[in-house]
Amino acid sequence: MKCFLSVAIWKSFVDVFCALQAEDRMHSASVEIKAWTKVYAKDRQLPKWWKLSRTRLSLKTNKFVHLTGKAWHTTVVLEYLAHLFEHERVLQIDVDVKQAVWAANNFFQLLTSCRKHGFYFLRPNQQREARVMGDFFLKTYVGLHSKFTGFCPFKLFHCRPKLHLLAHMVLGLEASPRNPLVDAVWMDENFIGQVLRLARKTHCRTTHISVLYRYTAGSATISATNDVWLQFSLPGRSESCFT
């Protein structure tokens, strides 16, 4: 999905054939996306530091482009693109790209809505709709991969192994009504990412013990800070907690 969104954003805002304007267009797109979240996605506003760049879109010659960032950033950008294509006249965008954005957004919104309301199993009509939307997105994506091969210096629409996993998830909806998002491991992946960031700051010979020290120190600091603010927020404790 991140490979797909990076191409969709690039084709919407960034003109790679005019390098002098590319950075300005990415900046304008970043401002517009964050402004959109303040109106339509108030509960999932992107952080102030978030912005589009060549690095975030992985725009490198002869490399597959993909959007880097957290998973929930991906869903927000997907909803924005679906809104943009539906309400604005973006004539230069390929019809198949628009259809893929529409299908992916409907697919994930259906599963997310059911999960948000505590439904672990989809009703027959929801199961059928998710299956059709997911299958349509996969077929459109594979078609885009073939259509845009050799289109520009960047490689577009990468058919990576995760696409195979998504195909299994979509096909599984035909046999089981269980919502795939119930088995999501976002928190686990986030924890692994935190550990990796700590490991990058250590020496290879002492990584195992240094990561434990750093993680323990960070956890202790956060815990102590939370305890202080908890005491400060309790009635009648605001004066004594700092004395």
What tags apply to this protein structure?
disordered C terminus; mainly alpha; 8 helices
Describe the 3D structure.
- By secondary structure, the protein is mostly helical.
- Helices cover 63% and strands 0% of the residues.
- It starts with a helix and ends in a 10-residue tail after the last helix.
- Mean pLDDT is 79; it is low at 15-20 and 237-243.
TL;DR?
The protein is mainly alpha-helical and 243 residues long. Helices cover 63% and strands 0% of the residues.
Give me the count of strands: 0
SS element count, helices: 8
- Residue-averaged pLDDT, rounded? 79
Contiguous uncertain segments of 5+ residues? 15-20, 237-243
Globally, the shape reads: globular
Order of helices and strands: HHHHHHHH
Proportion of β residues? under 5%
Largest sheet: none
Radius of gyration, in Å, reads: 22 Å
The residue fraction in helices comes out at 55-70%
Straight-line N-to-C gap? 53 Å
Q: Could you say which structural class the secondary elements and strand pairing correspond to?
A: mainly alpha
The overall number of domains is: 2
